[in-house]
Design a protein that fits this description.
The protein has 1 helix and 14 strands; from the N terminus they run βββββββββββββαβ. The chain has 220 residues and is mainly beta. It has one domain.
Length: 220
């Protein structure tokens, strides 16, 4: 008796995602964050985490989060002298905070009273974190930020690679420094993005170096 032909089992269709709400390079990221403002003058925005979908596009990860942005809005041309949040696509490669590592696998620095972020225009260390207590090559005061004592903002913080040594083209003096995703105090920022600590910690735990995470900031 002839046998019936074996019919191939159809593969399940790969789940497709959606487009992101703001434009920008996603490079090799498989996990990223979007921050969407209503206009260049917005001091608040919507933050959303995303996972790259197997079938293309992006899938939302978790709820949308109300975020605070720069008191002077959002800009494609930030500078050290205006409190705007930079528009663009940036990597996230490190984290820091006064409190112990909350469980992120990104490189994490627990700050001490000797930790500073350098915002002195003209200093070769501009827009880097430095640890020094005396005889330092930078000013132990304004405009540099004393990270350990800047709370609640820097209880936990993700470094956004805007104008850092990890950014394309490296550091440009005066183009803006110390751009972080940090804990909010409920008001607009000096150019960072602020969200509640209870929302920030799960994001830090979720981001991994293997996912090549990025943050896309823009206007809806």
């Amino acid at each position: 008796m002839p046998t019936s032909p074996v019919r191939p089992v159809p593969r399940p269709a790969l789940r497709r995602g959606q487009s992101l709400p703001v434009s920008g390079s996603t490079a090799g990221a498989t996990r990223l964050i979007t921050v969407t403002g209503a206009s260049h003058r917005s001091t608040t925005a919507t933050l959303q985490a995303w996972i790259r979908a197997p079938g293309g596009g992006w899938l939302k990860h978790g709820p949308s989060i109300f975020a605070h942005t720069g008191v002077d809005g959002l800009s494609e041309r930030p500078s050290e002298w205006i409190s705007t949040t930079p528009i663009g696509s940036f990597t996230i490669t490190q984290a820091f905070g006064r409190d112990p590592n909350p469980g992120t696998s990104l490189p994490y620095t627990q700050t001490t009273p000797a930790d500073w972020w350098i915002s002195e225009v003209g200093n070769p260390l501009y827009n880097t974190r430095q640890r020094c207590s005396w005889s330092c090559s930078f000013n132990l005061g304004s405009p540099n930020e004393h990270l350990y004592y800047t709370t609640p903002y820097y209880n936990y913080s993700l470094v956004i690679d805007y104008n850092t040594r990890n950014a394309p083209g490296g550091v440009r003096q005066g183009a803006g420094s110390a751009v972080f995703l940090h804990v909010t105090d409920g008001t607009a920022t000096a150019g960072c993005i602020g969200i509640p600590q209870s929302e920030l910690v799960p994001i830090m735990q979720w981001l991994t170096p293997q996912a090549h995470p990025r943050i896309l900031i823009g206007i809806a």
